[in-house]
Write a structure and sequence with these properties.
The chain has 496 residues and is of the alpha+beta class. The chain contains 20 helices and 11 strands.
């Protein structure tokens, strides 16, 4: 049976990867199989029958108690038309880094944990690793709440702090490779209805659809309203009120998002339930995030968007104009193109503010983005602030030798009036170096030239590089050696 499939290259690659996984034991594929099974809404019995194995054996595989054989991998890939990249999407490099960040906390200073100890835990028990991260998230939230309450004791006031819902939803997107087939199908269904009655102007068509299908009218927020309110939906009056201070692309997107919240209610709730999102705040945030996903799918339909992206060589500004969207909206949509059999480049995305805080993060490229701390200052997402509006490119080399092609652009968001301060952000989008040739941004760049690669890390505390002049903290995996008589390029690394 294996010989039969080996004539197809992609199945040979799967077999090859399977052998590598056995040798390296870097990660297991059980979680990926479980994720794809749930996406297809299959029971373990149904999948086990398709693969020709027992339900109990499949259960052991999904819980990482048995390795996945090459034969099972081939059968699974053929049955569900999944590519090697999707099976490897559960590569736990991001999970590993998150856990390393957790153990870099001073509360673990006496435990003497080594990198390989953490790697062993992630490899053998990823769910336990996620549980530890969840527990640490709760600990940090309580720590911040306690500090806040101490500050407010004199005022007899208790401040409520944001919980970890944002990270919960970020993990949801990462777990599903930021691709939701049911929402793509729903977006196509809505688009077909709009096309049958529409005028071709997406803004007017969305307003008319919202009115005709859901009896919801769109109104403009009066000028005297608080500038902090940009959107308000009144379910009683069935009115969606939007600020006229928003750019047109944002207004159109918010209308599409409202359509998503109403039209895709069942699909959104099903995704949250399948991914075990149970607490109220995470459900609310998850509904908004998934409605935004559907809005992007309406404004940038999967098939036509991917086709145009390939034609334009992923020129983001070209795609902005063709789909009447914003730079950030296009970047987000580019991270969702993971349809089996018709995929785009696997991208990573990061958004930071001018203080370095990471407000959005997702990775399909393989690069790891910090969970708790700022990213490496050598990344061009930070230097982009020096040339706002201009796309900067960089070949970034991680400590493990992996290289990524990264582009970044800084921009500001006006408040809509002279008295409203601007907000400054930078968007970073990137992919593995091997995919960079398909992007217009790599033209005239020698991708293989060693001199063009910028050595970067994940974050200072977890980065092993000792020759970095921008190191802000000492590395966690070694003792701090400080000699007042010797100064290297960093205060935290003494030359030997």
């Amino acid at each position: 049976m294996l010989t039969k499939y080996c004539k197809y290259n992609k199945y040979c690659k799967i077999l090859h990867m399977s052998s590598l996984l056995k040798k390296k034991n870097d990660f297991r594929l059980g979680a990926a199989i479980r994720r794809i099974r749930r996406q297809r809404k299959l029971t373990q019995l149904q999948l086990s029958n398709s693969l020709g194995i027992s339900t109990s054996y499949l259960n052991l595989i999904e819980n990482n108690r048995r390795n996945v054989t090459g034969k099972i991998l081939v059968s699974f890939a053929k049955e569900f038309n999944v590519e090697l990249s999707e099976l490897a999407a559960e590569n736990n490099s991001s999970l590993l880094n998150d856990l390393m960040e957790v153990f870099s906390d001073v509360i673990f200073d006496t435990n003497y944990l080594k990198n390989h100890d953490v790697q062993d835990l992630v490899s053998s028990n990823p769910e336990v690793a996620r549980a530890i991260i969840r527990l640490y998230d709760l600990y940090k939230t309580d720590e911040l709440r306690d500090k806040s309450q101490e500050k407010d004791l004199s005022k007899n006031k208790t401040r409520s702090l944001p919980n970890i819902s944002a990270e919960t939803i970020s993990d949801l997107l990462q777990k599903n490779s930021n691709y939701f087939p049911s929402l793509e199908d729903k977006a196509n269904e809505i688009l077909n209805k709009i096309k049958s009655i529409g005028s071709g102007n997406i803004f007017s068509d969305l307003k008319n659809y919202l009115s005709s299908s859901h009896k919801i009218r769109v109104a403009t927020l009066p000028p005297e309203a608080k500038h902090s309110t940009v959107r308000f939906y009144d379910p009683i009056a069935k009115t969606l009120v939007l600020s006229d201070r928003l750019p047109q692309a944002s207004i159109t997107f918010l209308i599409a998002q409202q359509i998503g919240l109403i039209s895709a209610d069942n699909e959104i709730n099903s995704i949250l339930k399948d991914n075990e999102i149970n607490d109220i705040e995470s459900i609310k945030l998850g509904r908004a995030a998934l409605a935004s996903y559907l809005a992007a799918a309406i404004l940038m339909p999967y098939e036509s968007f991917l086709e145009q992206a390939k034609i334009a060589k992923y020129d983001i500004e070209v795609l902005e104009h063709r789909f009447q969207t914003s730079f950030e909206q296009v970047c987000h949509r580019l991270t969702t193109l993971h349809k089996p059999g018709n995929r785009g480049i696997p991208f990573h995305l990061m958004r930071v503010d001018i203080a370095g805080n990471i407000s959005k993060r997702f990775s399909s490229s393989g690069i790891t983005i910090p969970r708790y701390s700022g990213a490496c200052p050598r990344l061009n997402i930070y230097s982009a602030f020096t040339t706002p509006g201009k796309v900067k490119v960089q070949i970034s080399e991680m400590p493990d030798g992996e290289k990524y092609f990264c582009l970044a652009r800084a921009f500001s968001k006006r408040g809509g009036s002279f008295s409203t301060p601007e907000s400054y952000y930078s968007i970073g989008l990137g992919c593995g170096l091997s995919e960079a040739k398909d992007m217009i941004y790599s033209e005239n760049i020698l991708l293989d030239a060693i001199k063009n690669a910028v050595p970067v890390g994940i974050s200072c505390r977890t980065c092993p590089r000792t020759d970095c002049s921008q190191r802000a903290f000492p590395p966690n995996d070694r003792a701090l050696i400080f000699d007042e008589n010797i100064r290297g390029i960093s205060s935290y690394v003494t030359p030997i």
